[in-house]
Amino acid sequence: MKAGKPFIGQEAAWDEWLAAVASERMHHAWLLSGAKGLGKRAFARAAAGELVREPGARLPDADAHPDIHVLEHLPANDDEAKKKAEGKPFQTKRNITIEQIRQMQQRLTTRPTLGARRAIIIDPADDLEKSAVNALLKSLEEPPSGTYFLLVAHQPGRLLPTIRSRCRILRFAPLNPDEIDAVIRRDLPQADTGARQAAIAASNGSPGVALSFVEQELGTIHQLMLRILREGDADFHLRGALAEEMGVRPGRERQLAALELARTVLAHELPDAPRARQLRIIEAHGALTKLSTQAPTYNFDAGLLIMEIGGLLASAAMPREAAR
C-alpha cells in the first residue's frame, strides 16, 4: 500500500492522518467514526502502520508488528480458537473484555519495541464491556509517551461522552457510485458490469455492502427485500421465497451480508418516507442493527434469522403490515 492515497473515497481522512503523523503535536487518541462497511478497519491498520513505520521502511503488517496492538473480539471458546487458527469461520465473544484492556495496559508500562511510537487499535470500541470502558478511560486520560489510540466506532453515540471528548474524530463518509465501482473493480475484478451496477445500487454508499453483494450473489435477495418493503407480505409468500433464496444452510458470511443489506435497504428508503413510516423504518433498522451485533456471536438458526429479517422489513412496508 502506498502512502498518500491508499483509500478510495476516504482520501481526506488519510491526508488528515498523514499530516498529524508528521506534526510535532499529534493528538494521542483518534475516533474513526462512520457506518459499517466504509473501510475503517483497514484504515486503522494502515494508519497504525504509518505511525510506527521507520523512515524509508515499507508499511508494516499491523497484525504482526510488535508495536501495534489490536484489541478485537476473541474466539468464544477453545474450540472456536482452533477454528480461527485453522482459518475457518469462528464465533466470537460478545464484547471486548476488561481483561484485554488490562493486558494492553500492562504492555504500556514498557517502551515501544522497535521505535518511539506504539499504536493501540480497538475494533470496534462500540463493543467494549462497561468495565473495560472505564479502564480504557484511565489510559486515555494519562497516555504514556509515544502511545496512540485508534478507536473504530460504527455507533459512536454508544461510547461514553468522556471517551469521545478525549478523541480527535476522523469521519468516514459514504462513497459515491464511481468510487464504489472503483472498489469493486479493484477487489473483485471478475465481477461483470451487471453485478457491479446492481451492487452499486444496493450499497447506499457502503463499499463493504457492495463487495458482499457481489461475493454472496445477493441480487435476487435484494429484489425480494425491496418487494417486501414496498408491498408488504401478508401471506408470507415473499418471506418464503427469501428463505429459499438464502439456502438451506447458508454460511455465516452470507447471513451477515444479508443483515447488512437489509439495513442498507431500510436506510435508503428512510429519507423519502412519510413521517409515520419513517418511525417504523427506524424501529426496524434498530432491530436489524441489534441482530447484526448478535449474529457473529449467537448461534442463530439460519431459517429463523432470514424470516426475522423479512418480518422486520414487512413491519416497515407501505401500506403497513405488522410483523408476525
From TrEMBL:
InterPro entries from the xrefs?
A: DNA_Rep/Repair_Clamp_Loader, P-loop_NTPase
Top-level taxon of origin: Bacteria
- Name one process (GO BP) from the record: DNA-templated DNA replication
Instruction: Quote a single Gene Ontology cellular component term.
Output: DNA polymerase III complex
Q: Which PANTHER family match?
A: DNA POLYMERASE III SUBUNIT DELTA, REPLICATION FACTOR C / DNA POLYMERASE III GAMMA-TAU SUBUNIT
The entry's protein name is: DNA polymerase III subunit delta
Per the UniProt record, the source organism is Novosphingobium endophyticum
Q: What is the lineage of its organism?
A: Bacteria, Pseudomonadati, Pseudomonadota, Alphaproteobacteria, Sphingomonadales
